[in-house]
Structure formats: structure tokens, C-alpha cells
Amino acid sequence: MLESSSPTGRSEELRELLVESKQATGSPSSPETATTDSPSRECQRQSGRMGCSRTAFSPILLSPWFCAVASLAMGSAILQYPLWSLAAFTAWLALVWQVRYFEDLQWLVLSTGRHWQCFRRAVFHSAAVSCVMLVIGLHMPLWVKLAAAAVCYLLGVVMTDARRKKDWQNPQVYGKNRLPMHSPLSYHPSESAAMALKTYHPRRSMPEEGARPQQTKCLNGQWRFKLFPSPTALAGNVDWREFYKRAGSERDWDRINVPSNWEFEGYSHLIYTNVKYPFVCNPPYVPASDNPTGCYLRDFSLPSSWAGRRILLTFGGVSSAYYVWVNGQPVGYAQDSFMPSEFDVTALVRLGDDATNTIAVQVMRFSDGSYIEDQDHWWTSGIFRDVELFAAPVTAISDYGVQATLDNKYQDGILKARVQLAGLEDGRSYSVQFRLYDWEGLTMDPSTPQDIRLPAMSPIFEHTENVTSGQRTAPDAPTSTRREETPLLAETIRDQEHGACVEWTVRVPSVRPWTAETPSLYFLTIGLVEGGQHEALQWEGVRVGFRTVEICDSQLMVNGRPIVVRGVNRHEHDPKAGKAVSLQSAWDDLRLMKQHNINAVRTSHYPNAPFLYDMCDELGLFVVDEANIECHGDTPTGYSPIAKYILFNQSEIPFGRLASDPEYRNQWLARVTRMAQRDKNHPSIIVWSLGNEAGTGPNVRAAYRWLKRYDPTRPVQYECDGSPVEVSDIKCPMYPPVEVVEQYGKQQADRRPMILCEYQHAMGNSNGSFRDYWEVFSRHANLQGGFIWDWVDQGVPKTFNKIECWAYGGDFGDTINDANFNINGLVLPDRTIKPCMHEVKYFYQPLAFHLLSAKAGLQGRGGMVTVTIRVTNRHIHQSVTQDMIHLEAAFSTDTAFDFYDSRAVEYPAVEAGACEEVTIEGRMPPRGKGGCMPDVWLTLRAILTKTTKWADAGHVVATERLTLTDSLRDAVQAVPDPHALLRAPPAVGAAADADADRELTIEDCGDYVAVRGGDFKLAFDRSRLGGLISWVAIPRSHQEWGDLTRKPSRELAIEYIWDGHGPSVCFVRAPTDNDRGGATAGGALDIASQVLARGLGNILRIATHKPPGREGISYASRWEKAKLFELHKPIVHFDAHIRTLEDPIAGGSMTVAEVSFSQTIAPNHAVDPYFEVDYHYTIFPTGAVHLGCRVCVTPKAAAIMPPLPRVGLHMMMPPTFRQLVWKGRGPHENYSDRKSSAFEGVYRSTVDEQYVPYVKPSEHGGKCDVQWAALHTAGSCLLIKAAHFKAFPLQQRDTTSPPAATAPVLQMNASRYSVKELMGAAHTSDIGQGIQVDTNAHIKSPVHLHLDHRHMGVGGEVSWYPCVYEPHLVHPTAPDGSPALFEFGLWMLPMHLDSQDDVLAVAAM
């Protein structure tokens, strides 16, 4: 629906665009123009339609009456010759339907517009009625059958048309009386006001009315509100009097905040879907009885000073369709939830402080527009952005466009401003004043109001252009790719007698260019002055950033240099306000992004509030601005309606159907054109996006061509169907595997750059293999990064079991939902960062450090080390100097928690994209035991020297840890220490003789065997389940471990095992969201239930939409099918004995106790085992214990077993062992495919701090490459060191084990929650945690300690099919296909400690 008829001269141009003409002439145009009628007259008359061009015969052949007659004739043929006619009809229908989607033959069908819909409806009605009459009346006269068919057909048409008369179910009606879209206008009375109010957003940041400009009145606040189940429950014909009558008296109304979503105010319920629609799909119809409709009322008054001005009413965002009345008179109707709509209410309002005006708004939750607003987020409703009134002068600036580009040398700026004027009076002269200011140092930070005093600021350029009514001071610029000749405004003046267009072009020498790294801004003020008057009628202000965007040599270039997109997708989401996002929330989001080195945002999948673009301009973020279009059926195009309901559930439609629907054409175009018209002046927007996951078709191609003509200075992207070249200038796929990305980097056929519009699905514990993507990006110039999906978990607070936690789809009574698929952000709903954010910051960091050499030397009395590194500046446009970045170097070892030497580093300026060598000197580390060199690390940190708009001084921009151990060890003459090499216990050698009085004994105690030493006792259960069930010891201090001739000085014995759960082999983990991604692997009943719930097509697409070689069945489903969570572990062999060991290297011998037992592990009631496990305990007289574990996968298991989650040991320790120390990667959570940002070192924390509050609980808290770990309580500790299978590697005969010199490592996880508890939890409340993590919530719960030899990665490519990459999988088979064999070991040492430094002293032995 157009707001009014198109002006003469534009109709043919628009018609060309809508019917996919190959050649277009004239300037770009918008499919929406303003009406000249009054609001009441416009809304009271029946809406007209502007159809597509039609051939000469189409009005006759495809008119409704012709269709009716033709369909009845066909019905008669069916009655007379049923079999042949039905066959012919079926063939014809199939052909016509396919022609509708076959682009080369679409002309006839698509050009018929509404008539095609009538024809199709007539065919279906007549065919259905005729078939029914054929069955029930075979022997009735033919004329009776025809009469009955005609009656039924006409009744059906009438009923259908009755439904279609409702505006919210008519795709061609998407606005009534709505003014044309334009750049945001504020109608300031003075230049100082225009400048001051542009430093921060005037609507949200200044709630006091007195602080607002005199020409603005904000209607935010408390409104009266009433919710009805549907529009028909309120009024049958949308009439103000009926609206007020049905609504009841004022005391029946509630109060609601505006802006807000009414679901967040306690009305109706939230719905979350990703692919599905929350109603049965039958475009354009929406539920008649279940379409919540909110009615809003508010009284307001306007000052008398507004007399003689135009009063404009603006709604910033309303979902999804709404009518507006003022003082009982209809104003207009609008759709497009995320774009503003403006109405002229001058004739309807009363002025004066004593005059009360009433505004009424009726909002429908669902409309025909909902079919193209099927984005992956909550379905919310209501007035969720600002509502404002503006007093605009009659003669006013109606729009303006600013293009600030660079010349061909990228040195001087070319500023072109084009201003559109309206309401010029005959015989009067006017002038437009342009003034350009330097805007350096000013901010729109909502917490930092600016006091701008114009006398202190002088324009660097100014210009005055005189104009009279009907005069155009500059000719229309022709469509061209030259930057200086690009048209800026969508609309030409509709009424040349009362309008004019003014242009100004100026060259700004040696301009400071705008980039995401250096967001230099200028400020342009535009004033409209009448005649020689001193005061202006209107002032507007706009920020200006000089930059040029182009695609050259298969690369996206900004200011002549190829950029790298380190981006993220962002939904507007406030956990307590929904889409009503505040200025402060958006500012905090963008600052947090910048602090984690994110340089680009995609506004997925709709235009954001205007202030977000202002913030991106200022803070420095590239923006892909995306139109509010998505109809995510996620199915192939071309399915017939019958196949739709067989293959897909009723909440989905065939992908691409609406992209080819002529009835949606104008609305589709309007969403794209209005976005560009509003946001055209922002330098941060470097790419336009046509929408998301909406298929490809004529509507998409028409929108692309419009954008390319309207704004040739920006590329256009669109992902769907492989980013076809006819709709996308950028190859922007979703979630391609790394190998696919690399293939594109190598090919030369497609010369477009590749920027992933979505990649690395951050759902729960995710974002594995991030390194793989960035290594590929760095190898190919045409691979320029991408946008992570996505920024924030869209959780909403809700109380379960008296604990408030984050809720998701299905938690609010939304029976059609996609569960927690909206919980896929880098940050939690309250913006707490998730561990994966560290990995993102690391690979997005703008500086890289590489070790070139490290040499030990002597200077004076102290030993020194000289390290040479290479510093690489990854910035595209910004040099790095010491004035902006302070480089700090710190040396550390594994013998202390703190740095032993730290110093500032002098370095030369590093140009963008260049590198420099830097030398760093530091002290040599203290020697370890026996003079050995400890592990030495150099930590480099790049720190902000000064406070910026996005971070305070001291913020760490980049960090790296370099290992110096190998470089320095060769230069140190160390005393050999075979114990450290062999990982032997400290008691080996002569010290063992001193402990001869502590003889080990083995006691048979019936069901268990006890091994006793002088100060410890271990008990092993030799019954059916078996294992170490108790370990009581008097722990040694680190001095006593150093001198084994000393006995423990304490008498208090400590129990290290909780409830008999000693080390036992474990193969499972609590599935992550990525583990659950994919189809389920069940029996016939399970598959049938999936088909009924999701449609066969959605089950099949898991196989068809996954890359070749990927498995379609989820890991978790395959683990459950293999019954890995139901393993039974009976003992089949048990042996305990005393023996003497000799050490051929250290000399001497010792007596040890050895306890060995075996388990055959299989699912409950299974006959054939999956695993054969051997445990071998070696207990030394000192109390040290070595555990060797061998896991053999059986041939049967190797043939059927999926990749294993883990292979390792699980044990439980008493609750008091809450302190944790380890040497490995940290301090944050990390896994084998997400560990680059977790540096090797020694760390200390607590067990409770290992908990990561993922919205849906799962595996968490992992630590990679752990050489040793210690859990301790007051005075007592259990030190665990990774070891080989045998206590003495030189005695091993198994050549498959790693060599003795290879330091073994393990994956560690310490948690208060068992795998079973996490698996059974749908929300954090199920494990006793809420939104605010309580680290003391489970201090009485035992510690679950996992010590894994191998642990599968978490994946991150996607979350809907298995995606862990090969190096990070734990296969049950060896590389040659034989059953896998896993061998590993542990040293366990109980010890007493006075401080955590004691752990380091013992661990270093």
C-alpha cells in the first residue's frame, strides 16, 4: 500500500523498478511518498493500490470475474469428465506454481499483482467445491451442481475478501498518511541548540522537559493501557468511537510505561522462535482470535507558542502494526516495527496549556508484516521506542543528505551537502547556511553532558546559498559511480512550486579521515533563514566523518586500505526491558565491544535506534546496517503448498516464497528504502544489508538495484542462497566450515571479498576452533573476517523454585518455541562476559608479539636475559606510539605466583600494518631445585596510556605470553635431576633407607583391602564395583617432603576421598549446547515424533544443510544411544602385594605396595563390554601414590562408538577442599580448541570460582595442559601431578607410550556439580544458582574432580550439527582403524601447607 498516489513522472520509474526492468532511468526513488490530504480524510477513505505493470491482455484474462467464470467452467469439466479433468488440473496447477518460482518465466505471473491472487483463490475454490459436489451428487442434474458450486465459490471469495479488507492482513497496506522517511530532524531554533543537543541524545539523556528543545515534546512516560485478545475483540471496524466504547471507562485502564514491550510489563506472554512462526502460516493472514491488541491512551497539552507551526507526531518503533488517533480523529496506520513513522497532526491538535489533547494508539501484535519479521529473537509487542511531537516551521528543511568522502589520493575531504526545502512561500527569498566545525574532543557519552559555547568555536568552512520557491540551485546529479556525483536524497520535490533543493560542495584540505580506529569527526550545521532576518527558521546538525568505502582487488577497502572485520552481530536486548533499550545500555554495549577489540557491528536483523549509529560514529565501529526483513522458513524454494504441509510443520513456509510475492513487493522495498533514507548520513555505516534469511527473488533484486542507484558509495550485501552476485557485492556466507573458507580464499573465479555475516555460534560453552578461522583469514587477502553470532544471551529473568535465573523460549507458556536457541551471546544477559570472550579479544587484538630470540648473559653482578621480539601492528589506519600504548614486560616462573621482574619497554613508533623489532632486558630467574632452570615466561601487555571514550587509562588492549624456558635452558649449566625427568617420587634413592622403619603392610579386611604406612592408610574395595574408597593420611609439609628423613610433625589425619568415590574412569560430560546440536538418534517412534513436531523437511535439512563429511546426528544423542551415561563398572580382577623396586639411575631400592584391578565396562544389562580398564596403584612409604590407568576400547565399541566426550578419571573430595592451585593454562576456562588466550602459568583460585553460569547448565570450568594441580583446605592439600602410565618410564616395554622426556599433561575440571546434576538442569536454579552467582551456595557439597587424559573440544562452528574439528575429537579408534588404547598416570601426594607457596615448592621437586 502506498501512502498516496505517486507524482507524475515517478509512477513509470517506480513501476519499472517493481517489475524488474533491466534498464532504469532517472534518479532513484522511494516507493513511499507523503499525502497532501488531511489525516482524517486520508484514513477514512478506502486505501488505493498501486499494482505492477501488466500486459495489455492481463486486465481481461486475469480479472476477478474472468477468473470466476473460468474456474466455474473448469468445475463443469471436472463434473463431466472427472478423471481426465482432475489429471489436467493437477498438471496445470503444478506447472503454474513452479512458473511462479522459475525466474525466467515469472513476468506474466508477477506482473499480474493482486489478480494472480484472485485467480489462484478462484481455482482452488472451484476445484474444491466441484470435487465435493462430484462425490455427494453424482446423479444430480448438472445445473444443480453448477449452481451449488457457484454459490460456494462466491461465498468463499466474499469470506476471503472480508479477511483481506483488514489492513493488518493486507501486504499492500503498510502505511496510511505516513510522511516520507528522512534523516532525523529536530527543528532547533538556534545553531547552538543544534550543536549542544547532538553531543548526546536529546530524547533519552534529558528526561526533564525544561532541558528539551523548545520545539520538541516527549510523550514517554505513563500511558493508560488495556490489552485485548485480538483486534476483533476490540472493534470490528477500527472506529474511534467503537474503540473508546469497548475500552470502557478510564478507571478500567491500567498504566504502562512507554517506551516498553508490554510482555515485559506483565501483559500477555513472551514468545521466542528462530525458524518457526508463532502461528499457523498462511500469508498474509494472522490469527483472528489470538492476536493480542494493546490500546494506549495519553493526554497532553501543547504550548501556545507552537501556533503557526506544523505539528508532527513521531513513533520511533512499534511492533508490529498500529493505528493512531488524536482527539478522536484518525491520524494514520503504520507497519515496520523497527523504523520510525511520522504523521502530520497539525489540523487535529489544540494549543494552549489549558487545552487537553488525547492520543490513542491501537497496536496489533501480529500483522502481515510479521511474516517478514521472523528474526531470531523474542516476539515482543507495543510502543518500544520514543514517542515525540515536533513543532516544525511551515517553511522547513524536510531532509538533508551529507556525503563526506576523500579525494583519489585519500588526503583531502570532499564534502557534499544536499538540503531539501519544503513550504517555501511565493515571492519570498530564503537562504541556507552551511557551517563546518571541528568536533574533536566532544562526546555523546550520556554520563558526560557537554557545555558547548559557540563563541569559543569557529567554523573551518561556511557558505550561504540563496534560494526562492521553485528554484533548484544545483542540477540533479546523474547516477554515477564517481563519488563527487552521487545523489543523496531519495525524493525529488513533489511540488516544485513550494520546494527547492540546495547543494553545497567543498574540499577540505588535509582532512582527518574517519575510520574505526581513528573516528575523527567534524560537525556540519545547516540553517534555514528567511530573507534578511537574523534568526533562522530552523537549524539542524549532523556529525561528519570523511571516509571512502570501495571494493577493489577482491577486497573491501576503507580509505584505500583493505580492512579486517573483527565483528559481532547484535540484537537489541535488555533483559528487563526487551527491545526498549536505553541510551546508557547501548553505550555500555559498544564500549564493552571496543574494550574486547571488536571493530564492527551488524545490526541483526533490523535497523537499530538512531542513537546507536551516533555512538558508532563517535566510538569507532564499522556498521553493517540491515533492513528489517527475515522470513526464515529455512527450506528450499519451489515447494508446492501441498508439499509444504507434508514436509514442514505449520509454523514455517517455503524459503523464498515471499521474496517472489508481488503483494509483498512494495512493503519489501519500503523497508529497505526507508532504512537507507534515515541512516544515510552516518560514516560508521560502510555496508547496507538487504535483510536476512528471506530467500532470493524479484523483491530482493529490486531492493538491491534501488540501493545501488540511491547510494553507490556503499556496498550492498545479502547472504541468502550463497550471496548471488545480482544481490550482493560481498560474499557473506553463514557458518561456513574453515575448509570452505580456505577454498574460497584460493579460488579466483569470484572476485568479491568474503566477509562472514555470521560465524562462530556462541551458544553456551562454545567458540572452539576460533584460531582455525583466523589463521585462514591471515593467509588470504580476500578473506576479511566476519561477525560472530552473537553479542548477548537473550535471557529474561524469571523465578524458578524461589530462585531468579535466566529464562528462554518455552518458559513463558509459548508452546511454539525454539527453546534456548536465543542464548548464544558472547556475554550473559546482564553483560557479564563469558570465557569465550577472552578468546575473541585475543584474536581480535590489534598488536601481535613474536619471540625472535632469548639469550642469557652477565651484566655486573646479576645475571641478565636479553629477549628480542617482533611487534606487529595489525591496525589498518592507525600507528602505534608510546604516547597511546604503554608496553609492559613481566617475567615469571612456575615457582612463584607473581612476576619476579617487570619493566616498561621502549619501542619505536609502529606504522599501521608494519612491524618492528624490540629488545627487552630482564633479570635471570632464580634457579630451581638442583640448579635446574624453572619454566620461564615473558608476559607482554599493551596498555592504554590515556583515557579514551571507550576505555580508561590502564586498560589492557593486547597481551601475549612467550615461553623462554627452552631458549634459556641451553645456556644454564644445571645439575642433572633424574627425579624431575622421570617424575619419580621424592623418596627414591638413599632417602628411602632412612624410612626403612616405615614398612608397608597390606591387610585383608573382607570386602576391602587396606594398605598401611607409618602415617597413612588407603582402602580399596575389591567387591563388584571396587576402587580406592578411602585415603587417610597425616600430610607432610614442604620441608618434610624436602627432607624425607623427617617424620610428619602433626597427628591429625585427613580424609582425602569423599563417600568412597576415589579415582574411577569416566567417559562422559554434561552435554554442551553444541553437543546437543543436530538430530536425535532414536528408534522409529522417536523419529516419528520428530517428524510430527518439526516436519520431515526440518529433519532432512540437518543432513542437507551440513557440510560434506559432517555427521547430522548430535554428539549427545549418539552418546545416549550408545548408553555412555549408563555404564556399569564391575571388577573382574584384583591383586594387592608388596614388592621391591630398583632405580637404575638414582640407585638404591625401595619397598612399595602395588594394588591392581581391572574393570570390564559396558552399559547396564549389556553382554559385550565397551572398555577394558586396568588400574595400577603404586604406594610408596612416604605416602606418595602413583596411579597408572590403561583403557582399551573393545572391537565392538570401536565399530559403533561415536567420538568420546572424555577419557579420564573422576573422583570426589570433601567439601572443605575448596582452594585450587594449578600449573597449566588459565586463569579462565579453556578447552583444547579454545585455549590460545589462556596462557601457561601457575594460578590460584577456588573450586566455586570455576563455575561458569551458562544459562543452560552444561560442562564448564575446564583447564587444559595441566602439569599439576592441588586442592587444599586449611593446612592440608592433595597435590596431583600428570604422569606416565608406569611409575618409572625406563621400565616400560610399551612403545606406544610417549617418551619419558615428554612432560605429560591432563585436562582438569573441579566443580561442585556432578555430570548427572548438570545434565538434569534446564536452568541454573535447578543447581541452586541464580542470576547473581553465590560462591558459597554449595560449600557443603563435595568437590567433583575430573582428571582427563583426553577431552573433546567444545566446537563453535555451529550449534545445530556436530562441529568439533578433527584434532580435538577423542576417537575410539586409532589412526589405522584399530581399537584405541589410552594410557596415562598420576602422582598424588598428600601434604601439609602453611601457604599456597608451599604447593609450588613441592610441585617443583
Descriptive report:
With 1405 residues, the protein is α+β, with helices and mostly antiparallel strands. It is built from 30 helices and 61 strands. Strands 48, 49, 50, 51, 52, 54, 55, 57, 58 and 61 form a ten-stranded antiparallel sheet that branches. A hairpin with a 2-residue loop joins strand 23 and strand 24. Helix 4 (64-80) runs antiparallel to helix 5, helix 4 (64-80) packs parallel to helix 7 (114-136) and helix 17 runs parallel beside helix 18. The radius of gyration is 36 Å and the shape is globular. The termini are far apart.
Tally of DSSP helical segments: 30
Major pleated sheet: 10 strands, antiparallel
Which regions have little confidence, pLDDT < 50, spanning 5+ residues?
1-66, 96-118, 199-212, 451-455, 473-496, 634-652, 974-997, 1089-1105, 1290-1300
| Estimated helix fraction | 10-25%
Alpha carbon gyration radius: 36 Å
Cα shape: globular
Strand content: 25-35%
Structural class, judged by helices and strands? alpha+beta
What kind of oligomer do you see? single chain
- How far apart, in Å, are the first and last alpha carbons? 81 Å
Properties at a glance:
single chain; 1405 residues; alpha+beta; globular; disordered N terminus
Q: How would you sum up this structure in a few lines?
A:
The chain is built from 30 helices and 61 strands. The protein has 1405 residues and is α+β, with helices and mostly antiparallel strands.
Topology of helices and strands:
Elements: H1 11-18, H2 39-44, H3 58-61, H4 64-80, H5 82-101, H6 106-110, H7 114-136, H8 142-164, E1 175-176, H9 191-196, E2 216-218, E3 221-228, H10 231-234, H11 240-247, E4 254-258, E5 271-273, E6 293-302, E7 310-315, E8 318-319, E9 321-326, E10 329-335, E11 341-344, E12 352-364, E13 377-379, E14 382-383, E15 387-392, E16 396-406, E17 413-422, E18 429-438, E19 461-468, E20 499-508, E21 522-530, E22 538-544, E23 549-552, E24 555-558, E25 561-562, E26 565-569, H12 583-595, E27 600-602, H13 610-619, E28 622-626, H14 641-647, H15 665-679, E29 685-689, H16 698-710, E30 716-717, H17 738-746, E31 754-761, H18 770-779, E32 783-789, E33 796-800, E34 803-807, H19 836-844, E35 847-859, E36 862-873, E37 885-893, E38 901-905, E39 915-923, E40 936-944, E41 956-963, H20 965-969, H21 978-982, H22 990-994, E42 1001-1004, E43 1008-1012, E44 1016-1021, E45 1027-1033, H23 1038-1042, E46 1054-1055, E47 1064-1066, H24 1073-1076, H25 1084-1094, H26 1096-1104, H27 1115-1121, E48 1127-1128, E49 1131-1142, E50 1149-1163, E51 1171-1179, E52 1185-1193, H28 1195-1200, ...
Parallel strand pairs: 26-27, 26-32, 27-28, 28-29, 29-30, 31-32
Antiparallel strand pairs: 1-10, 2-15, 3-4, 3-6, 5-13, 6-12, 7-11, 7-15, 8-14, 9-10, 9-12, 16-17, 17-20, 18-19, 18-21, 21-22, 23-24, 24-25, 33-34, 35-36, 36-39, 37-38, 37-40, 40-41, 42-43, 43-44, 44-45, 45-46, 47-53, 48-50, 49-50, 50-51, 51-52, 52-61, 53-60, 54-55, 54-57, 56-59, 57-58, 58-61, ...
Helix pairs in contact: 4-5, 4-7, 4-8, 7-8, 12-13, 15-16, 17-18, 25-26
